């Protein structure tokens, strides 16, 4: 009995030693397989983020001098009017762009998903603009909207009307122009996401609803809409992050004006970094933007994904 | 064990590949300069428009004209040229020679990566006295030459001869019939307004883009204002107010349309405007329109002294260890200036008086008419914050043109922003 117990203990010991050895081996193998990726990831992602933070603690003209100033760039940010205006502009754009892109994307997906003729062409047409580069998109919308010689103004003139709308001349119209250009450019991608979501919904549920005599609206309200919860959350999250990074549209269409009324945060970061050559302050704003995006993404993730 | 070596070896191999690449490169360049073959120069330019093609042709001609130097041409996007150039200068990966606007020299030189050219010019046989004085002076920093001028380009006045003739405003020699000064010019626009059909605007300028800054700059310079004198900011001044008042007046009286950007070129080109202030680089564009009968003349003098906004393309030589290449770069720059008739086809004014006087240049259409503008050009004040200062002033001027702020408040706003930038 005693012998047996000893033997078992011995066995147990050797088994656990073996297991530990095996675990280490597994970790080592995993680490080695991960290494090629991790080297590049640390090199090109983690290291620049750390370096960016270090730069944000300095001041001086890029390539001329660099002096350590601690957190004073961050302190200056609090009193910098242009920072707050551009931050407000960014939030405003998120506010107007996210709901419109969700609603439009969903409507387009519903149209394309219906069993009507010509939906294949529509699907390509809706998605096509997404493949263009921002410089092309910017030129197209300036070409369409600009006053007097724009496509829109000229078309109106052809029919004997004069359209005196200044698309880039005010805060409200400037943002409307940027919103239209952005929607046209990116809504196709969101449509694809919704479309994938729609096609995952089992046909049987609709058949059951038909037997129960549900109307189209009821089917949408009680089957389609709830089933798209996850996709909607994803679209909102992606759109929010994309809106925080808004730059090309304002740079090319309104040049941030009139004044600074359509200058979002990333546009301001560009001006500080590459017009004022103040990499320290630009890095500091970038870092704040990074933290804000992380925070909002985290909150959205928690709130929107909770019930899934 | 074999698996282990493989897994370990792969990333090492990757790293190894990177470093061995570097070795190859330095070996290659090393052998290049020692073997005494052709000197290879990399050359960066920011010409996105049609002038890029003219420059490429000039480079080809240069390469064919001699056997010692081979220039490798690289055209860059204008929008991000300076971020790219300055980053390259700071990180020691700059080309052997590059174009820089004279206005940007004050931003690039403090990096210490732009070579002073006095000794190099002597070695390369470049004679500064063959260049126009105004242009060379603009490249001097603390008494040293830092760049070789390639051209002058300025905002000048273009007018549609047919429309001015219709309004009875054309003299026999083709010049505009108008009284002197700001009032005379404005009256001329008023006559155009009365005489021409209502769908033709007397004048068009970019009222929401950089042209507004350039014209403001010309008008305050004509009144003798140095709006940035060292660190002293003088933007908030009666001269600035006068300049913006007259622009506001033109807008209010409908003598020019509001809310116009780059389409100002097209509005003039298609005969929808009689007069425009725009850059000399538009000449090549306008002359492609056969229905347009136009004239190009220097920017009109509305105030006390002649002045126009202008800039120069210049050539800079980045600092590097290979002196042979630097001398070759200066030789190439001087060749470009000497052969700039080709470049003048793009609309720019050559940097050497001898070229301007040459029969070949004088025979070009339009260009000789406005060549004299190079003597009146007032460059933007040299500052290591030049780009940001221009942006800050422009922002406020555009707000004035849109009527979102009064002239006085807009000028004050610009003044305060520039003071903050210059650290006052």
- Main structural class of chain B: alpha/beta
| Arrangement of strands in the largest sheet of chain A | 1-2
Q: How large is the share of residues in beta strands of chain B? A: 5-15%
Q: Give the distance, in angstroms, between the N- and C-terminal Cα atoms of chain B.
A: 68 Å
The parts of chain A where pLDDT drops under 50 for at least 5 residues are none
Give the uncertain stretches of chain B in residue-range form: 1-35
Radius of gyration of chain A, Cα only, in angstroms?
27 Å
Helix content of chain A: over 70%
- Distinct helical segment count of chain A: 13
**Number of helices, counting only DSSP H or I runs of 4 residues or more of chain B:** 20
**Can you give the mean pLDDT of chain A?**
89
Order of helices and strands of chain A: HEEHHHHHHHHHHHH
The number of E-state strands of chain B comes to: 15
Describe what this molecule looks like in 3D.
The complex is a heterodimer of chains A (308) and B (424). Helix content of chain A is 77%, strand content 1%. Chain A has helices at 2-55, 72-79, 81-113, 119-127, 134-145, 151-158, 171-200, 203-212, 216-227, 229-244, 248-254, 265-274, 279-305; strands at 58-59, 67-68. Chain A has a two-stranded antiparallel ribbon. In chain A, a hairpin with a 7-residue loop joins strand 1 and strand 2 (67-68). In chain A, helix 5 (134-145) runs parallel beside helix 11 (248-254), helix 7 (171-200) runs antiparallel to helix 11 and helix 12 (265-274) runs antiparallel to helix 13 (279-305). The longest helix of chain A is centred in the N-terminal third of the chain and has 54 residues, at 2-55. In chain B, the strands form four sheets. In chain B, strands 7, 8, 11, 12, 13 and 15 form a six-stranded mixed beta sheet that branches. Chain B is globular, with a radius of gyration of 25 Å. Classes of the chains: A mainly alpha (308), B alpha/beta (424). The interface between A and B is large, with 32 and 43 residues.
